[in-house]
Amino acid sequence: MADIKRTALFGRLDPLAYKAMESATVLCKMRGNPYVELVHWLQQVLQLPDSDFHRIIKYGGLDPSRLAADLTAAARRHRHLRFFASSRASRRARLALRLPAL
User: Fold this and answer.
1) What is the pTM for the complete model shown?
2) I need a surface site. Which of 9, 34, 49, 63 has the fewest CB within 10 A?
3) pLDDT digits (tens, 9 = 90+) for 16-46
4) Which residues contact 36 (CB under 8 A, 6 or more apart)?
5) Top-level CATH class of 6-98?
6) How far apart are CA 72 and CA 83, in angstroms?
């Protein structure tokens, strides 16, 4: 996997996306998770006051509190999963953003 510099990646985000990614990164580091997954980022976007994501949820007639509960449950399950198949492991590696060790 190509090494991507955080500044190059994060520098292209708009303020809302940057804040959500930053919050997801902090949350994952605090929980000892070296990866920021899509579910972590979506959790943080949902917690922000106003976004296109909120409008999509409203337009789709989804219950925001139910979606938040589902995302939380998915994040908890994801944290406890282990690599059990090489194809899944490689897919996860492609989808995850590896956090640098401190």
Assistant:
1) 0.67
2) 49
3) 988 999 899 898 888 888 888 889 999 999 9
4) 21, 24, 25, 28, 96, 97, 99
5) mainly alpha
6) 20
